[in-house]
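User: I've been trying to design a sequence by hand for this structure and keep getting stuck. Would you show me what you'd pick, starting by listing the structure so we're on the same page?

Assistant: Good idea, let's start from the same input. This is the structure you sent:
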């Protein structure tokens, strides 16, 4: 049987290159309309060329999809899963065309972000609105933000607890890292009545994970900022803060990549490369914990969200901070929500 009245699920993501010849065209898509010179894109592209021009994001999303398909089948749901990206193959427009050709109409959308904010939420609404222009016969319902979902918290807490029991104590510092955004964008996230929703959601998820793991001393830090250096972004930067902690006597960093569900470029470059190099240059050690999106339990979380929407129920959450979602056809949660102009960054996925 289908999932109640829904007959397809679209996994909607950012996209990433899968070869050296794809890097610059991909970055041109990411930065379209922002006037970023090709020379700057080539500089950013060095992150990808370091890994043969391949971002892990597409393969990891395919793993998520395979796990979700397995979990849907286990629960008796005959719900086909499609994969579409904003910036690179497979494009979301092609996925929507395939959904139409396969005869489906009511589509659930899992956006690969746990958070609110322009880049993390509203831009996916804009993607859905664009899909509707080409496929008006489809109805898209986006699933809820899941930063406070008990399974999301437990998966991170289990990783952190195990690391802390082995490595915690004097000299060890715990840093929860998420993607930085301009402070203006963060101020606009959630709208005037719920401002700074993005940073508050990240702080809340970190608190919930630390509490469940039994870790009382931790910090929230930010990473992957780009664009005009004069534009204020969320701080402190993860590398800068790790260096400061090392100068103050820390010998070991446990980094929880709370902002990311998979190991894409901002994880394998900004954390596994730049952060690790900075830490090791100072004689410190680093344990970057795993992202949680490739686990069977995470696939269960996705199917839980789908069932919640199909049943008209809000998902389970350990948080009282706003979790938005269940919007139809790309309608924003409110007209004022997350309206800040998007940052001109190119180092994604």
């Amino acid at each position: 049987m289908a999932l109640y009245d829904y007959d397809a699920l679209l996994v909607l993501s950012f996209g990433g290159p899968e070869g050296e010849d794809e890097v610059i065209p991909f970055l041109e898509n990411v930065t379209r309309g922002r006037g970023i010179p090709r020379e700057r894109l080539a500089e950013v592209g060095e992150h990808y060329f370091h890994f043969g021009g391949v971002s892990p994001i597409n393969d990891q999303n395919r793993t998520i999809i395979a796990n979700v398909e397995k979990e849907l089948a286990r629960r008796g749901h005959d719900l086909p899963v499609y994969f579409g990206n904003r910036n690179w193959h497979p494009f979301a427009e092609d996925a929507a065309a395939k959904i139409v050709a396969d005869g489906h109409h009511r589509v659930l959308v899992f956006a690969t972000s746990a958070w609110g904010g322009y880049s993390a939420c509203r831009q996916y609404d804009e993607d859905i609105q664009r899909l509707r222009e080409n496929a008006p016969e489809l109805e898209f319902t986006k699933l809820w933000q899941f930063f406070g979902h008990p399974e999301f918290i437990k998966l991170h807490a289990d990783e952190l607890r195990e690391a802390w029991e082995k490595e915690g104590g004097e000299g060890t510092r715990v840093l929860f890292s998420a993607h930085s955004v301009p402070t203006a964008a963060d101020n606009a996230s959630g709208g005037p009545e719920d401002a700074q929703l993005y940073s508050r959601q990240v702080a809340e998820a970190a608190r919930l994970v630390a509490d469940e793991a039994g870790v009382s001393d931790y910090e929230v830090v930010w990473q992957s900022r780009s664009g005009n250096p004069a534009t204020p972004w969320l701080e402190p930067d993860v590398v800068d803060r790790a260096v400061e902690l090392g100068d103050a006597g820390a010998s070991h960093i446990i980094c929880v990549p709370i902002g990311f569900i998979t190991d894409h470029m901002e994880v394998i470059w900004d954390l596994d490369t730049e952060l690790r190099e900075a830490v090791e240059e100072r004689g410190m050690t680093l344990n970057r914990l795993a992202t949680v999106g490739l686990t069977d339990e995470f696939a269960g979380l996705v199917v839980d969200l789908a069932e919640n929407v199909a049943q008209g129920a809000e998902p389970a959450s350990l948080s009282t901070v706003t979790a938005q979602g269940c919007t139809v056809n790309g309608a924003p949660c409110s007209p004022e929500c997350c309206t800040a102009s998007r940052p001109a960054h190119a180092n994604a996925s």
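That's my pick for every position. To get oriented when you compare it with your attempt: The chain has twelve helices and eight strands. The two ends are 35 Å apart (CA to CA).
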